[in-house]
Design a protein that fits this description.
Largest sheet: 6 strands, mixed
Shape: globular
Strand content: 15-25%
Helix content: 40-55%
Distance between the termini: 35 Å
Structural class: alpha+beta
Low-confidence stretches: 1-20
Length: about 180
């Protein structure tokens, strides 16, 4: 009887672990996205959005910090940083579960590094930093930290985000990408 109870508890905990680490990837990505957008700490969380430049029609995935996405939306929607403006942007964000946003304003596009970010480089970074090994380390230890140049940091954060993992960088002590366990 005790063995049956143990197996039952083990299978329940394994299901939780699988869901938390990729069992429902779309939900994980959306929840990580919301955490990144709503985060107000100096430790900024990375997120991935799909952005369309309405001036050129170009669409691409962008990995950037949540506060940069929020700032771009403030610019694009012409919302100030009053409590009402903040609430309007958050409500707008929550309606975009697909994380797809369209921008016309050049400053908004620059705020998310639309022109500089090259998602085609993700495969190179995945190989260089052995992303699957990083994923295994995070699953086992719930910890990861790595000092990187900014351009590589965003690409590695992107690769991890697509696997359901949230990462961030402390703005006070930049240069270190860290795994973040969403609360």
């Amino acid at each position: 009887m005790k063995a049956l109870l143990f197996i039952s508890l083990l299978s329940t905990s394994v299901r939780f672990f699988d869901t938390k680490f990729g069992g429902d990837l779309q939900t994980e990505e959306y929840l990580n996205f919301l955490s990144a957008i709503q985060n107000e700490s100096t430790f900024s969380y990375f997120t991935v959005i799909k952005a369309k430049n309405l001036n050129t029609g170009e669409i691409k995935e962008i990995c950037t910090k949540g506060n940069f996405v929020s700032g771009a939306l403030h610019i694009e929607l012409k919302k100030d940083y009053s409590p009402r403006g903040e609430k309007d942007v958050i409500e707008y964000v929550k309606k975009h579960k697909d994380r797809y946003f369209e921008f016309k304003d050049q400053k908004a596009l620059e705020n998310i590094s639309f022109y500089e970010y090259n998602p085609a480089s993700i495969n190179r970074i995945e190989k260089k930093y052995k992303v699957e090994q990083i994923v295994a380390v995070i699953k086992e230890t719930r910890h990861f930290s790595c000092s990187l140049p900014d351009n590589e940091m965003k690409l590695l954060a992107h690769a991890l985000f697509e696997r359901g993992f949230m990462t961030g960088e402390n703005n006070c002590f930049g240069g270190t990408l860290e795994y973040v366990e969403r609360k």
